[in-house]
Amino acid sequence: MCRDGYEPCVNEGMCVTYHNGTGYCKCPEGFLGEYCQHRDPCEKNRCQNGGTCVAQAMLGKATCRCASGFTGEDCQYSTSHPCFVSRPCLNGGTCHMLSRDTYECTCQVGFTGKECQWTDACLSHPCANGSTCTTVANQFSCKCLTGFTGQKCETDVNECDIPGHCQHGGICLNLPGSYQCQRLQGFTGQYCDSLYVPCAPSPCVNGGTCRQTGDFTFECNCLPATWPIFPKLLSLQEKESYC
After folding, report:
1. How many C-beta neighbours within 10 Å does residue 242 have?
2. Could you give phi then psi for residue 35, rounded to 5 degrees?
3. Is 89 exposed, middle or buried (0-12, 13-18, 19+ CB in 10 A)?
4. Span 143-163, mean pLDDT?
5. Calpha distance 154→84 (Å, rounded)
6. What are phi and psi of 84, to 5 degrees?
7. What is the disulfide pattern of this chain (predicted)?
8. In whole angstroms, what is the distance from residue 231 CA to residue 216 CA?
9. Domain spanning 80-119: which superfamily?
10. The whole model's pTM is what?
11. Among 181, 184, 127, which Cα is nearest to 150's?
12. pLDDT tens digits for 118-141?
C-alpha cells in the first residue's frame, strides 16, 4: 500500500507500513476512512441527552447509541413521549414526534382527525361541483363554490331570481354556478352597465382603424392585404374580430 511515488492517503493522512509489508492510512483528527477520505461525522457530536456517537469509518456515517430513557435519530426524544406511552394514533396511524411533548399522526387511508379517530367520510367524494369536503366527527361537510348550494353543493343557485343583476333592461340568463346578462342595443359590460360606443375599444385588429358611422355602427379601415368590412350594426352577443 505504501511505496515510493505512491501516496494513497488524502487530507494529510500518513501512510504507515507494518513489518509484514502491509500498510494503512493514519488519519489526522477530523478525518477517517480507508484513505482518510471522509470527514469524521462524530467530530461535532450530534447525539443528545448523553447519547454516544458511533462512527462507521468506511462509510463516513454515524449513528447514535442513546442513553436509557431516550430515543430518536439524535436521542432527542424521551421514551416518556406520548408516541411511546399513550400511543395516541388510532386505526393503524403512525405517530411522528415533533418536539419533546408534541406529535402528529399520519393516518391510514379511510381515517382522519388529529388522532385518526374518525372514519374519512370524504373518501367517497360526496361534494359536487368543485366544492371542498371536510370530515368532522365521522360526518362530511361541503364548502360550496359561489353559485351552488345544498348539503352536497348539488343545487345551482338561480341568480336571476334576485332582481337587479342586469341593468338598463338587460335580460338575465342563468348558467351553472353563474349567470350572464344579455345586452340590449346601446349597452355593454358584464351587467349591461356601460353605454356602448362602437369604437371604444376598437374591434378592428391587425392594425385596422375603427371609424364610427352611426350610434351603434362602425367600419374598419384596414391595412393593405387585409379585408375591410362594411358599416355594421352591433348585435346583442357579437364578439367578432375585424380585419
Report:
1. 19
2. -120, 20
3. buried
4. 95
5. 45
6. -100, -35
7. 27-36, 47-64, 66-75, 107-116, 144-153
8. 10
9. Laminin (2.10.25.10)
10. 0.45
11. 127
12. 999 999 999 999 999 999 888 999
| Residue 18 in grid coordinates | 507494518
Q: How many residues does the chain have?
A: 243
Summarize pLDDT for 187-227 with one digit per residue, the tens: 888 888 888 888 988 889 998 999 998 888 899 999 886 56
- Residue spans of the domains in the chain: they are 80-119, 159-195, 197-243
